[in-house]
Amino acid sequence: MRSDGPWTADFGCYGISLENGRLLWASHGSGYWGHIVRLLDFVPGFTNELRDTPRYVEDGKVFCNSGRVLDVKTGKLLRKVAPEDVRSHEKPLSIGAKFAGSGVDRHHPRVRVANDLFLRHAQEAEGWQRGTLEIAAETEMGDSLWRFSIKQLGRHIGSYRLVPPFIYMLVSDEPNSKPHPTKKHYALPNPTRWHFVTLTIETGEVIQDFSLGDEKHSECRIEDVDTEGLLIRRENKKLTYYRRIQPIKAETQPSDNADVE
Which residue would you say has higher pLDDT here, 103 or 183? Predict the structure, then answer.
């Protein structure tokens, strides 16, 4: 875990249950040193570079910046490798990551997501545009299949993830920021209500749309996606895990979720 803000500091390595949100283990270092830096977790607002942090997870193992390799279920130290090997590791980009990256590219190249199905960011402006999302689906020959714009929902995009065969989106009723009344080029938070929307890439239709509650937040984003669900973070640092479900009618909410404070 790492801090937000103008600086970046290692906050340690934690294992959290996606079933109930409980802390399963914490491992910030090995031996006595690990016990000492674990105590720093209980000092409010204390940050430093003493704690180890995870770099990536692969095959049930957590690879940390220090070179420690931990068991993902128990946090136990399995072995040590060279730190430079961990830092130089390059995980192959997923289809979702490639598509997200194409939205930042100047001319929005299309990405193959299925047999004879390509997606591209269709907004006319070059590069990434805050609060907008337009997607076009095409065949390999360039024939149009469908087109989707966040404007169709009358809402504003906050975060999205492509995980075929779906695109998951967090959208807000109002823009989550507003211009500063006196300072040009400055923005202020604008807390708003959020919704979780699921789009099928086969037809471009919204198959699920439900509210995340009446509480207003200026930030809400998808932090991660696995084979079973999505991890959503609100601005108060609260994490909520929603299990992925089969396509159902709109306004239906997943029944299984876990909160992490």
Answer: 183
Q: What is the DSSP code (8-state) at residue 256? A: -
> Cα separation of 88 and 242, whole Å?
32
Distance, in Å, from the CA atom of 168 to the CA atom of 174, rounded to the nearest integer, reads: 19
Strand order in the sheet with 61-64: 54-58, 61-64, 68-71, 77-80
User: Over the stretch 61-79, which tens digit does the pLDDT of each residue have?
Assistant: 999 999 999 999 999 999 9
pLDDT digits (tens, 9 = 90+) for 139-151: 999 999 999 999 8
For residue 86, give both structure tokens.
């961990």
- Over the range 165-178, which residues count as b (16 or more CB within 10 Å of their CB) and which as e? ebbbbbbbeebbbe
CATH number for the segment(s) 95-260: 2.40.128.630
Distance of CA 87 to the CA centre of its chain: 21
Task: From residue 250, give the alpha-carbon distance in Å to each of 135, 190, 197, 241.
Answer: 20, 27, 9, 19
Backbone angles phi, psi at 40, to 5 degrees: -65, -20
Residues 6+ apart with CB under 8 A from 30: 68, 77
What's the length of the chain?
261
Give the tens place of pLDDT for each residue, 52-65. 889 899 999 999 99
Q: Are 109 and 102 in contact (CB under 8 A)?
A: yes
**How far is it, in rounded angstroms, from Cα 172 to Cα 194?**
4
pLDDT score of 114: 92
Q: Can you give the residue ranges of every domain in the chain? A: 14-87, 95-260
The alpha carbon of residue 256 and the mean position of all alpha carbons in its chain are separated, in whole angstroms, by 19
Q: What is the distance between the alpha carbons of residues 142 and 79, in angstroms, rounded to a whole number?
A: 50
Closest to 159 measured CA to CA, from 168, 150, 151: 168
